[in-house]
Amino acid sequence: MSSALTSFEPATGALLWQGAAGNVDEEVARAATAWPQWAAQPIAYRIETLRRFVNVVRAHEDKLADLIARETGKPLWDAQTEVAAVMGKVDISVSAYAERTGQKRLDAAMGARQSVRHKPHGVMAVLGPYNFPAHLPNGHIVPALLAGNSVVFKPSEKTPAVGEMLVKLYHEAGIPQDAIRLLLGGAEEGKALTAHGDVGGVLFTGSAQTGIAINRQFAGEPGKILALEMGGNNPAIVWDTPDINAAATLVAQSAFLSSGQRCTAASRLIVKESIADAVIAEVKKIADRLIIDHPHADPAPYMGPVIDEAAADGLTESFLYLMSNGGKPIKHMVRPVKGLPFVTPAIIDVTAMAERPDVELFGPLLQVVRVPDFDAAIAEANNTRFGLSAALIGGSPEQYNQFWTQVRAGIVNWNRPTNGASSAAPFGGVGISGNHRPSAYYAADYCAYPVVSSEIEQPRASIGVGLKPIDTGAMGD
Q1: CA-angle at 156, arms to 153 and 159, nearest 5°
Q2: Which residues constitute the catalytic centre (predicted)?
């Protein structure tokens, strides 16, 4: 298995962190030992401990935001919103746990009662992504711990420093050392963790390719819970609207926020032919104005770099592929800083392409498709195996109703960006964007399983039919 790990700041190339890969068997064994004691604690105790975690994060808020910004390259203001989401997750999870996995008591026959309660699964493996290295794994870890599970958390090998700090904050808050374990490593450690026999479930956020591989791995293990969030190829439809500038601003936010490294980012702008030139021109005008710089720059940038050189190379190669296969460049993707993974936002009209690749382009690369009518717009929006997020910008209430009804996505917005989903709602998609285990508010559903019990304090039973009569004569002899 891999051993030495390093993490470099995307914006500067400076070495940020180095360490060694962990031992999968050891970390799972420690978590397996810890979870029964953690689960035996009253729910009020677990809630109190997790609320202490919020206070600990608040005490280290600036340090955590700075580390996220340095390790991911995202602007400091963007990292600060991520830290706020980490803190907000606890109260949201407490409410979700009470609503979705609360206890129920029902009357039953012969004075008995029916109880519905929930039990934890045991050891949960959480595999986190690099784009939100604190918020997204925290969205699995908090509800998992709240339900009484223990957790082995493997952060992305591209953001180990944030993962390490996050686990230290849990421990500082009083979560038992073995109830939340950090497993550092790469793909090999991830495969070994998901395959481990003592893991009761896997909570994964990342690429479709990896998620599908995990799903295959679990095909013969129906007893394990699996929650997958695997990104998207998300459409934003722009239709009749009196405010082209506002529509274009929503498109730019959808496509270029966090350098396009959001699973809900808009990859495709689907626009009515009659307004296409005006909308595209306005989106380009906004994209041209976006400041691209290092996370702590002044004035504050809208975009930082993408995560690393490999990601930047992949995006520029994708742009060249689209251009050489029928795409018409509107705004070229440029690498402004040699040797660092900065890329400029790119826009390309792919209407004329015979076959458009159905892949997640994880970066600021927006493809434009012009369509003649609204039915064609919805058909184009659904022209993907993914199904995470979709937005209609403009249009009438009747058209939004048609869009909401017919588009295949787990997040469907009107006159709002495709990204920026609320943690107080379910978060997940259909197709190869997920496996019908939405996270955020609905994470409570996959962190505990329901148990129904029929209960009475003393045994009481009778059989009313189907018995032979008692032979009283034999008793008198």
Answers
A1: 110
A2: 229
